[in-house]
Amino acid sequence: RETVSETMNRQVLLFISLLSLGVSYTIPEEMSKGSLVGNIAQDLGLETKRLTSGKARIYTRDSDEYIELNRERGVLLVKERIDREALCRQTTPCALHFQIILENPMEFYSVTVQITDINDNAPTFEEGEIKFKISESAITGAKFVLERAVDLDVGMNDLQRYELKPTDNFALKLHNNADGNKNVEMVLQKPLDREKQEQISLVLTAVDGGEPQMSGTMLIIITVLDVNDNAPVFTQQTYKATVTENSPKGTVVATVTASDADQGSNGKITYSITNTLDDVRKMFKINRENGEVTLIGNVDFEESRNFQINVRASDDGGLTDSCKLIVDVQDVNDNNPEINIMSKSTVISEDAKLSTVVTMINIEDKDTGENGKVLCFISENVPFILKTSTNNFYSLVTDSDLDRERASEYNITVTCSDEGVPSLSSSVTLTLQISDVNDNAPVFERSSYEAYIVENNTPGLSIFTVKARDADWNQNARVSYILEDSSVNGVPVSSYVSVSADSGVIHAVRSFDYEQIKDFQFRVKAQDGGSPPLSSNVSVKIMIQDQNDNPPQVLYPVQTGGSLVAEMVPRSADVGYLVTKVVAVDVDSGQNAWLSYKLQKATDRALFEVGLQNGEIRTIRQVTDKDAVKQRLTVIVEDNGQPSRSATVIVNVAVADSFPEVLSEFTDFTHDKEYNDNLTFYLVLALAVVSFLFITCLVVIISVKIYRWRQSRVLYHSNLPVIPYYPPRYSDTLGTGTLQHVYNYEVCRTTDSRKSDCKFGRAGNYRHQRQQPEF
Ligand SMILES: *[C@@H]1O[C@H](CO)[C@@H](O)[C@H](O)[C@H]1NC(C)=O
Ligand SMILES: *[C@@H]1O[C@H](CO)[C@@H](O)[C@H](O)[C@H]1NC(C)=O
C-alpha cells in the first residue's frame, strides 16, 4: 500500500510539475451506471471534434474500467459500480487514476477521480449471540470480554461506539488496543441475584457515525448460577394452633412452612424442633420434610395450657431460620366437680332454729370456663336448702321446722354438676340424725274408756289397761300413769281403783256391789319422762255388771212366823175367780230380776192355778160345798238368773161364805187371837203410812223434775232415790177389792232415753207389810 500511495504522490507531483495538464474529479462511490463524472472536454479546453478526431481514449493499467469516455458529448461517465471498500479498503483517500490519450497530435491528459466513502456498511458482529454463565456471587467489577464489531466504512462511517442494554447490572468498558482497535468489556456493576433473575439477556449494539447511521447488534445471554445465599424463611414468625386436650396421638396440630429461594440442595429445607428444656419434644414431633407437627404425647389442659414450640428450618447449605408455634390447649370437660366437706354436723336437734348451718361444702372443678362452672343442688322434699355464699362455697341450712317424729334421719344427697357439654357431676350423701326434744305429750289410744266389771269381784282384780303412746324418743317417750284425784259418792276414787304407773293396768281396790253403785268415772293422767314432762288425761268410766246375788223377796202375802193369814174364797166364786196375787221383787236387775211364779204344792191342785208371769192365783173350777174350807198353797217364785234363785211362799185360802165359818175352821191356828185384837189399829196405821209415803214420793218426783229442768246437763246417778215399781199386772184391775193397791206407783224417766225403762223400787223402802188383817 505504501508503494501505491507513494506512486500516487509522484503522479500528482508530475501532474503539477511536468504536464501541468490534468483534471481531478471527486465522486461518491456506488453511483449508478452512466452517472456523469465530469465534463472533460470543457475542463481540458478541448473541442469535441478534436476528441473524435483524435480518437480520444482512456488509458489505465488497472484491469477493471470503472469510468468510460463519451467522445461525442465530451463527458466522463460511470461505467461500472464503484465500491470504495473493494477498491481501497481502509486506504484514504481512494482515487482512480487514468489518462486520456489523443492522437494527431498525440497528447495525453491525466485524470484523477477521487472516490468518496458513503455509509453503505453497518457494523457487524461475527456471531449474533454469545452466552455467559456467571455465578450470582460474582463481585462487582468483574470483567467479561466481548467480541468486537467490524465496520467496513471509513471515517465517520466507520464504527463509532457501543451500547449495552439494559444497563441494570453491567456497564461497558472500552480498551484502546495498540493496533488502534478497541477491546470491548462488560463490567459487573451490581451483583447478580439468581433468585431475582435467573437469565439475563443483554443487547450489545455497535453504532457507526454515518448518515444515516447504521448499527449491528449482538445478544448476550447470561445464565446466573446459584449459590446458597438465601436462608430458609418461615411464612410466619409465629404460628398459632389449638389442640383439644386428650386428643389422640398422631393428631396433626399445625404445619409450618419455610421457603428457600435457592436452588437444589441450597433450597432443600429440613425442619426440626429445638426446644430443650421443657418437655415439648415428648409431646410433639415435626415431620422433617413437610413441617407437619403432630402430637405424640397426652395433652392435659390442667397440666399445661399452652406449648411454645421452637421450630428450625435449615437448608443443606447450613442456613437456618426459626419460628415459634404456639399451641393452645383447649379445655375438655374431663374433670368431675370435687365436693369437699369442710365441716358437718351429724346430729341436729329437732327444735333447731331456721337457717341453722348443718354442713359447709367447698366445690372444685379443675376444668375452666363453662366446664368448670359448677352448680349444686340437693334432693327435694327435705327441710334443708343449699345456700351459696361466695364462689364454690355452699352451706346446707335448715329451711323449715324439723320434726324427729316425722323423720328422724335424712339422707341428703348433694349433687354438683358443671355446665360443660356433656355435663359431669358428682354427688355426696350426708346422713343427718335429728335428736329428740320432748315436744309430744303422751296420747291415749282412745279418747275415753269404758270398762265393765262384774260385781262381787275380788279386790285387786285387774279391770283393764289404759295405754298412752308418746311419739318422742327414749326418756321423752317413757309414759307413767297416774290416777287423778277425784271422789266418787264422797269417797276418794283411790279407794275404788288404782292404776299401775308403769303398765297402765287399772285394778279394783274393793269388791263392788251393783246394788250400791252401778258405775263411776275418774281420770287417768299419762305423763312422759321429759324435762319438763308433758301429760294428758283421759276419762275412764267403770260400769259394774249385775250378778244374780239376790233371791226374790216375797212382799205379799206376808209370811209371819205364827199368825195365820188367809184369803177368802166364797163358795159362789166362779171359774177364774182371783183369789189373791203373790207379789215378789228381786233387787237384782234384768234377767236376774225377771220373776216367774209356779204352784209347788196345793191341797187341791185341781182348784187353783198361779199365773206364771203375774203370780195371780185364780180358781180353775167352780167351788163346791165339798171343797175343804182350809186350802194351803205353796207358790215358788224364781228369778231368771244363772243360776236362778228362788223363794217360796205359803198362801192360806179359806173357802167359806162367812167369817165365823172361817174361824171355826182355823181354830187350830194358835196365834190367831192376838191378831184380832190389834186388827183395827194396824189397818189405820197402814193407811196412814201409805198415804204419807205417797205424798213423800210425789214431792220427791216434783223436786227431781225441777232440778232436771234447772240443770241442762243430765247425768244418771245410780244413787238417786228410787221409787218402787210394780208392774201394772200387780194391781187388781178386775176391781175385786180384795187387794189394796194404793202403793202401786210408776216412775218413768223420760229425760234419758237409754234409761227410759221404768225403775223398780227397793223393797226395803216399803217394809209396811203388816197391814193385812190377822186372824
Ligand atoms: C339413709 O341411708 C342409710 C344407708 O344407706 C340407710 O340405712 C337409711 O335407711 C337411709 N335413711 C333414710 C331416711 O332413707
Ligand atoms: C285433762 O285434760 C284436759 C284437756 O284434755 C284439761 O283441760 C284438764 O285440765 C286436764 N285435767 C287435769 C287434771 O290435768
Number of strands: 53
Q: Give the integer mean of the pLDDT values.
A: 84
Question: What count of helical segments does DSSP give?
Answer: 7
Main structural class: mainly beta
The residue ranges in which pLDDT falls below 50 over 5 or more consecutive positions are 1-20, 669-673, 714-775
Major sheet details: 4 strands, mixed
Identify the CATH architecture of the largest domain: Sandwich
The coarse overall form would be: rod-shaped
Q: Any idea of the CATH topology of the largest domain?
A: Immunoglobulin-like
* SS strand fraction: 35-45%
- The largest beta-sheet arranges its strands as 1-7-6-3
**Small ligands present:** 2-acetamido-2-deoxy-beta-D-glucopyranose
CATH superfamily of the largest domain: Cadherins
CATH classification, class level of the largest domain: Mainly Beta
Quaternary assembly: single chain
